[in-house]
């Protein structure tokens, strides 16, 4: 999924600089990766993406497919609803993304009509959740969800702040800050 994302960003950069031949090559590569992911990892019955190794339901494959535009446009809403249902059914409303998918989970759910599910995740106070940390004295984001974390100051679980500002409060930049 991240290879696809990098190819799409590189395509945009090439177009910005007027390098249409390069942009076309990156677009073609991105399309091949997208098609391969959809063919190999998308389950049309459950409307969820899975990993290469069978390990049960995981949130990250579906979250990244939605966040990066890999999921077919006409199925995005249905996939988001299936993801929200799976979070409630398989994970009991808890997180199971890990750091690679966590940044995208809450915004994707909110953008695609599942803001209530995002709020349910935020509102949890049992393990694993931000509320569990708070209930156990945390004042920062820890390295792991457990209370035995080695580091008590890790940035990647802090992406929840982005959701608070951008989705919950609706605060969005009007233009890039450098302007």
Distance between the termini: 31 Å
Question: What is the total tally of β strands?
Answer: 2
Binned strand content: under 5%
Net shape: globular
Helical percentage: 40-55%
Question: In what order do the strands lie side by side in the largest sheet?
Answer: 1-2
Low-confidence stretches: none
Mean of residue pLDDT values: 93
Explain what this protein looks like in three dimensions.
With 179 residues, the chain is mainly α. Helix content is 55%, strand content 2%. The protein is built from 8 helices and 2 strands. The protein has helices spanning 2-16, 20-41, 59-67, 76-90, 99-111, 115-123, 130-135, 160-168; strands at residues 42-43, 48-49. A two-stranded antiparallel ribbon has the order 1-2. A hairpin with a 4-residue loop joins strand 1 (42-43) and strand 2. Helix 1 (2-16) runs antiparallel to helix 2 and helix 3 crosses helix 5. It is globular. The relative contact order is 0.09.
List strands and helices in order, with pairings:
Elements: H1 2-16, H2 20-41, E1 42-43, E2 48-49, H3 59-67, H4 76-90, H5 99-111, H6 115-123, H7 130-135, H8 160-168
Antiparallel strand pairs: 1-2
Helix pairs in contact: 1-2, 3-4, 3-5, 5-6, 5-8
Task: Please tag this protein with its features.
globular; single chain
């Amino acid at each position: 999924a991240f290879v696809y994302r990098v190819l799409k960003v590189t395509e945009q950069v090439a177009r910005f600089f007027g390098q249409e031949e390069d942009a076309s090559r990156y677009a073609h590569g991105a399309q091949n990766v997208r098609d391969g992911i959809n063919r190999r990892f998308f389950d049309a019955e459950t409307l969820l993406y899975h990993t290469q190794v069978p390990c049960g339901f995981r949130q990250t494959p579906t979250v990244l497919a939605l966040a990066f535009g890999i999921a077919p446009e006409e199925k995005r809403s249905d996939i988001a609803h299936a993801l929200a249902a799976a979070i409630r059914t398989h994970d009991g409303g808890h997180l199971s993304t890990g750091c690679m998918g966590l940044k995208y989970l809450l915004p994707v759910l909110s953008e695609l009509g599942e803001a209530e599910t995002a709020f349910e995740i935020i509102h949890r106070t049992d393990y694993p959740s931000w509320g569990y940390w708070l209930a156990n004295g945390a004042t920062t984001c820890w390295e792991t969800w457990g209370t035995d974390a080695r580091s008590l100051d890790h940035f990647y679980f802090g992406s929840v702040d982005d959701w608070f500002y951008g989705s919950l409060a609706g605060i969005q930049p009007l233009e890039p800050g450098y302007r």
